[in-house]
């Protein structure tokens, strides 16, 4: 049985964080959800630096990434991940309240796997998160890992 990879949730809004965690929990995914609250910490997790230097989990099954983050914004995190040969195949879903066309276009230019605008309604948001979790953690078939990236 393949190793269960964690879901990396990068979110600084406490309400969105609580709702996202509740939706993922209700999906009954067995994947651990790792929460970080800014882009710098997300990069530390992905590159095993700082507080995450000795983490014993594998790279994430998916990164659920907020666009507007403190320290390092979501677009910068996305750019680093997708330009790194070791991480570029890690699925990244931009999860944002931004409806700016420029954010959408830039995200896809940088290689985002999906761009989801957070629905305003509670039920819609909850359903969207459950669907995302199930798709990326269970249904999506990632490419095989090759030595050296």
UniProtKB/TrEMBL annotation:
Gene3D superfamilies the record matches: 3.40.50.2300
Signal peptide range in chain numbering: none
This protein's UniProt keywords: Phosphoprotein
Pfam families assigned to the protein according to its UniProt record, in alphabetical order: Response_reg
Domain Response regulatory: 6-133
InterPro entries (UniProt xref): CheY-like_superfamily, Sig_transdc_resp-reg_receiver, TCS_response_regulator
Residue(s) carrying 4-aspartylphosphate: 66
Coiled coil: none
PROSITE patterns for this protein: RESPONSE_REGULATORY (PS50110)
Domain of life: Bacteria
Protein name in the entry: Response regulator
Originating organism: Microvirga arsenatis
């Amino acid at each position: 049985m393949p190793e269960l990879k964690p879901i990396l949730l990068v979110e600084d809004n406490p309400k969105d964080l609580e709702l996202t965690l509740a939706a993922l929990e209700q999906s009954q995914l067995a994947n651990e959800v790792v929460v970080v609250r800014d882009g710098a910490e997300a990069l530390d997790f992905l590159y095993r630096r700082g507080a995450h230097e000795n983490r014993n989990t594998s790279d994430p099954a998916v990164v659920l990434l907020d666009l507007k983050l403190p320290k390092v914004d979501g677009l910068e995190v996305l750019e680093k991940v997708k330009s790194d040969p070791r991480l570029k195949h890690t699925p990244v879903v931009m999860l944002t309240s931004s409806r700016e066309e420029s954010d959408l276009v830039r995200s896809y230019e940088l290689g985002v796997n999906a761009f989801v605008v957070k629905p305003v309604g509670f039920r819609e948001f909850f359903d969207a998160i459950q669907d995302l979790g199930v798709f990326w953690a269970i249904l999506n078939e990632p490419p095989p890992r090759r030595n050296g990236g």
